[in-house]
Amino acid sequence: MHFYKNFLQLGKMYIFCTFLSFLVVSPEIIYGETLEKEFSFDKSNIEVTKTKENYDLITLKDCIFTLNVGEPKLPMKLIHMIVPPNTKDINISVMSFSKEELDGDYYVFPVQPDLPAGQQSEFVPPNPEIYSLTEEYPGKLAEKSGIGSLDGCRILGLKLYLFQYLPQYKKIIFYNHLKIRIEIVEGESLIYQVKKRSLKIQEQIENSVAY
Predict the structure, then answer these.
(1) pLDDT digit string, tens, across residues 159-177
(2) Side-chain-facing half-sphere of 20: CA atoms under 13 Å
(3) Which domain holds residue 147?
(4) How many CB atoms lie within 10 A of CB 140?
(5) Which H or E element spans position 184?
(6) Cβ(40)–Cβ(177) below 8 Å
(7) Beta strand 142-150 with 153-160: parallel, antiparallel or unpaired?
(8) Which residues is 98 bridged to in the sheet?
(9) Is pTM beyond 0.85 here?
């Protein structure tokens, strides 16, 4: 019985990426030339804290941050999706959205250099060119972060910029719902068949299917 269970588990791993065209695990797997996907986010998961420099630090559950030093540090959502093995590139467009303005005024904390633990640097003040803008920053809602391969699967990284900052007016716009269209640019298949993978890699791939 133990051997039989191991055999079934190994078979599932083999099928997972080798036969993507027949696999249905989640709506996140992309079949065909285009995908339309909707994402919703809960305002109740937003937290705002004051830093010791008296800036506002905004966080959203399960999000990372923008990275440009001296520019507003805003939460963004990073999503991984499995795409067809012959995906060469993708085009992303925002089809629709809903948004709301957060109450209050915000002086958003500027991104600081990412240093190894134990190292310190002088505080980098806000970039005056960015913090004087009258239009939304970063001014984009979605973009590709990269396309790569992981142990026999082709994986797309997608960034969603849910917070837009109006620096001159100290206002924050929260995009709580986005509908995204992803168009696949096809090319030669860049992955290989995998007959067996570690449980750790298998878990990473399965986690790439859902956001």
Answers:
(1) 999 999 999 999 999 999 9
(2) 26
(3) 2-207
(4) 13
(5) strand 171-186
(6) yes
(7) antiparallel
(8) 177
(9) no
Q: What gap in Å lies between CA 189 and CA 145, rounded to an integer?
A: 20
Q: Measured in Å, how far apart are the chain's first and last C-alpha atoms?
A: 35
Residue 5, helix vs strand vs coil? helix
Contact between residue 115 and residue 69 where contact means Cβ atoms under 8 Å apart: no
Name residues whose C-beta falls within 8 Å of residue 141's C-beta, 6 or more positions apart in sequence: 94, 97, 160, 161, 164, 175, 178
Is residue 70 within 8 Å of residue 112, measured between CB atoms? no
The count of structural domains within the chain is 1
Distance CA(34)–CA(203), nearest Å, equals 26
What is the domain-level CATH number for residue 139?
2.60.40.3800
Measured between alpha carbons, how far is 34 from 183 in angstroms, rounded to an integer? 4
Over residues 27-48, the pLDDT tens digits come to 344 445 788 899 999 999 999 9
